[in-house]
Amino acid sequence: MFWRKIFRRTLTALLIVAGLFTAAIVGAKIQMYTATGEDYANEIESQDIAKLRARDKAIKKATKQAGVYLKSYSRSVNSELTDDEIIAITSNSWQLVGEPKYSRTVKQISDETSIIVWTATVEVNVDDSELQNWIKRDAKEKSTIINQTREAQKSAEENERKIEDLREKYNRATSQAEKDNLRKQMTDADRDFLANQKLEEVTKLWYKTASIANENAIIKLCDEAIELNPNNALAYYNRGCIYSIFSLHVWEGEDYVKQQLKLAIDEYSKAIELNPNLAEAYDGRGNVYKHYRYLKQYERAIQDFNKAIELNPNQLNYYIHRGLAYMDGLKQYEQAIQDFSKAIQLKPNDYNLYKLRGECYQALGKEWDAQADFAKAKELGYKG
Prior knowledge:
Elements: H1 2-23, E1 30-41, H2 47-76, H3 83-93, E2 95-96, E3 101-108, E4 114-127, H4 130-135, H5 139-172, H6 176-207, H7 212-228, H8 233-249, H9 254-274, H10 279-289, H11 298-311, H12 316-330, H13 333-346, H14 351-363, H15 367-379
Antiparallel strand pairs: 1-4, 2-4, 3-4
């Protein structure tokens, strides 16, 4: 209970600081964006799902408009962000204004076939202050949100292609058996869509300020996504992240921590089984293996970081995590220096990277190199 109180007090203090920081942003304002989206349903498809798809397309169009504005706005305040960062902000910070407005049109495709086209119109708010909120996040948090947003978008695009392919096949089908099989596949595709919607909600919760309530809500959404689609790798990955967080921030005794770490490894492993190319799952599992107090399985951690880097060689945090495993765990400072040097190439203005590399040089007795890195760290803002 003592550690839980400490965690809550620390979190409350962070929230107060964050609130003061946000309030200090000058000229920030809420922008509203209006957009429409369309989807249709044939005779065997759910009209409710078609409406949800139309709503989803409208929201994505609105957030794309917001992204164009935020990109320009970021330049005006000398904080230009990458396209991935802009997409992560707009995809997860939007707020729906009121309820979507729907209209429907019946279109005759042939003498025997008609479809119902649904048009959804939405109004979405995006606050300019999200730009500054993003800038003050740490690199790991940004990386997680960017990667989850990217994976969620990829899943949504794959689902849309799949449903269009099934519709075309159904229109060409001649036998009842073929149509029945395609009907089942369409139902499964609809369930995949609903699961993806749950995971987009998960990413929005990750984007919000961390709290135990949000973490419990994330697990609930992941459970619901897995019920809809038991083969959704992202749902298991997200549950792994939450169990990993519980192991660090919720103190219920040593056995509890070990249980959470095991659950995290199981979830990451299931995500990897379902999607062997999900780099973030290898990175997540690697971080659990190198847990500083309980597991300390540094060799296994490095194997996972190696795979993550193989899949995504330009991801900053993978090099940092592997470097820390070499540095703190195996005391292999030369290898750690290589990783921190690569990280510096990717982010040359991060003083923490120079500090870490300097500590490795110092451990090797290379005092001149160490002091050069410490001086660079101070030049970039390090106060230690």
